[in-house]
User: Which sequence fits this backbone?
């Protein structure tokens, strides 16, 4: 973690750079750091901040990029994933961006990274103290769908009026017979603030609670930063007679055989053939390297991935 | 819900439920309503009648805590804080009191319902706002209330937009009564409905009000609605109350010239 590392500590090689260190100017980074500190002090509270124009469109992770830019330092090791995978376009682009503007080492290894930026997933490997998880958030306000007025949702947060959020759960149960939300399942942080955990699958919700690592969440377009500090209570909303449950699969990962990982369904042809694979590509690769094998180990897809890795 | 228990409990607490004193509302230099004072007891139905622009809705919004008056006070016998000036309560306390003790039936059901969620969820929402976290119990209460307002319980999961205007208004009524409020505000509850639907809704409202011994403040420009629903009437003109009294007394023997015109303007078939 390098929150304290400013440009003063930047290496000599950075002096001749075209961009300011980590792209944003120093005043902007200070402003974002102040927002981060406030967010950490009030877990789950959405801190407004002066979101900047970034060199990518809104919706591509501008909130997360600004958070990372504000906390990253030259001795950080940076990992960026999209849908759990290290090799998707958005993840590769953002990783290259920070390799270029912040002179940081990048990695795909969850354990080696100090800053992990992500949309949609929290890595399978438990995060450790000293790691920062940066999540990109499209809509930070969990009540927005039901209450369009910002003045009203602010009052609802201030006065802890969270009954309305249960209306969405009621709808889900009445329509599907269970709480059917897949991602962005709302959570209560320290039994005080209702929080949208970004579009991570609810499979990942339990990882937020009592984590050793820091979770920072940033919404660039909506101009909000919020955070879950380490060892914070995070409770996913549910009904007494419909308790919160995470997704489970009857299948195991076709490549590495993992039974307890979040799996993606991949359609293989137009004959109905499909496979389930770990969404966390590094987790899967690590397991395969350790000798675990799933029912389709050695499949063509497995081969191409190995070649790409070399 | 538990009508019998409520009715037996009612006589013991026959105090003043609501006391409005010198209520005045100015919109800049335009008068909303001026110097309105009255008292209400539990189980009483008060009708506010008058022409368009006479200040009925301004008065209702002021009393229901939705519009701060320019001067005057509104005291309500809250279940949590006892008799209290509603604008002297802190905002979270006032909002909580509004959730717990009051209901508000809008003229247009679209103002009172969440159109993006099902009718059943709309009816159950006040229970969730008051802390109910048991789906099965809320579901059952919702079904009971849909029966009470004579809606097809099989349509519980339809969106409000898929119901007719009269049905939407019934959903709104159920939504505002499910948490057993002590006072319900109604702003032209039969306004946009055709006469036959209007008559059935009025019939239903009257039955529920009597069963639950609800206190109701009903704003209407329809004399027939006032006659059918209200125990007492307040006639407003130009922001002021010009006449007040028992409904039958006011309608059968109007004293103020405006009331006389109002009563004589009712179309006869």
Assistant:
């Amino acid at each position: 973690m390098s929150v304290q590392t400013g440009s003063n500590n930047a290496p000599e090689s950075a002096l001749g750079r075209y961009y300011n260190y980590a792209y944003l100017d120093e005043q902007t980074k200070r402003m974002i750091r102040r927002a981060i500190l406030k967010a950490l002090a009030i877990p789950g509270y959405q801190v407004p901040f002066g979101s900047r124009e970034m060199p990518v469109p809104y919706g591509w992770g501008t909130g997360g990029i600004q958070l990372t830019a504000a906390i990253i330092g030259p001795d950080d090791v940076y990992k960026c994933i999209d849908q759990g995978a290290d090799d998707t376009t958005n993840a590769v682009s953002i990783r290259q961006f920070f390799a270029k503007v912040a002179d940081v080492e990048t990695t795909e290894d969850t354990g080696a990274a100090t800053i992990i930026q992500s949309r949609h997933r929290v890595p399978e490997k438990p995060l450790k103290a000293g790691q920062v998880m940066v999540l990109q958030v499209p809509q930070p306000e969990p009540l927005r769908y039901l209450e369009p007025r910002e003045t009203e949702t602010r009052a609802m947060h201030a006065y802890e009026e969270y009954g309305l959020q249960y209306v969405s759960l009621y709808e889900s149960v009445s329509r599907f017979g269970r709480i059917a939300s897949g991602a962005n399942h709302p959570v209560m942080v320290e039994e005080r603030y209702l929080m949208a955990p970004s579009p991570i699958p609810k499979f990942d919700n339990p990882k937020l609670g009592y984590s050793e690592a820091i979770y920072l969440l940033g919404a660039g377009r909506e101009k909000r930063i919020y955070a879950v500090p380490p060892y914070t209570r995070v409770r996913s909303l549910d009904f007494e007679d419909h308790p919160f449950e995470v997704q489970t699969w009857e299948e195991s990962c076709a490549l590495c055989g993992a039974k307890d990982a979040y799996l993606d369904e991949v359609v293989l042809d137009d004959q109905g053939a499909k496979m389930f694979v770990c969404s966390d590509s590094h987790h899967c690769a690590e397991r395969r390297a350790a000798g675990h094998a799933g029912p389709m180990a050695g499949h063509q897809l497995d081969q191409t991935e190995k070649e790409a890795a070399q | 819900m538990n009508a019998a228990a409520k009715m037996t409990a009612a006589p013991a607490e026959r105090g003043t439920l609501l006391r409005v004193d010198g209520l005045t509302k100015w919109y800049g230099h335009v008068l909303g309503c001026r110097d309105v004072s009255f008292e209400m007891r539990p189980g009483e139905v008060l009708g506010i009648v008058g022409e368009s622009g006479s200040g009925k809705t301004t008065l209702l919004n002021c009393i229901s805590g939705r519009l701060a008056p320019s001067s005057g006070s509104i005291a309500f016998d809250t279940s949590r804080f006892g008799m209290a000036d509603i604008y002297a309560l802190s905002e979270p306390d006032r909002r909580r009191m509004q959730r717990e003790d009051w209901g508000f039936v809008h003229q247009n059901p679209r103002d009172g319902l969440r159109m993006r969620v099902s009718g059943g969820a709309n009816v159950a929402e006040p229970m969730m706002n008051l802390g109910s976290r048991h789906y099965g119990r809320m579901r059952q209460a919702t079904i009971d209330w849909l029966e009470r307002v004579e809606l097809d319980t099989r349509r519980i999961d339809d969106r409000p937009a898929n119901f007719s205007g009269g049905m939407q208004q019934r959903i709104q009524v159920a939504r505002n009564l499910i948490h057993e409020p002590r006072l319900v505000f109604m702003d032209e509850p039969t306004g946009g409905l055709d006469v036959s639907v209007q008559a059935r809704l009025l019939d239903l409202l009257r039955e529920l009000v009597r069963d639950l011994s609800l206190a109701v403040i009903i704003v209407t420009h329809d004399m027939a609605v006032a006659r059918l629903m209200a125990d007492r009437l307040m006639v407003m003109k130009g922001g002021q109350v010009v006449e007040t009294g028992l409904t039958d007394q006011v309608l059968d023997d109007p004293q103020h010239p405006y009331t006389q015109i109002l009563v004589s303007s009712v179309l006869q078939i």
Q: What stands out?
A: Chain A is about 25% helix and 15% strand.
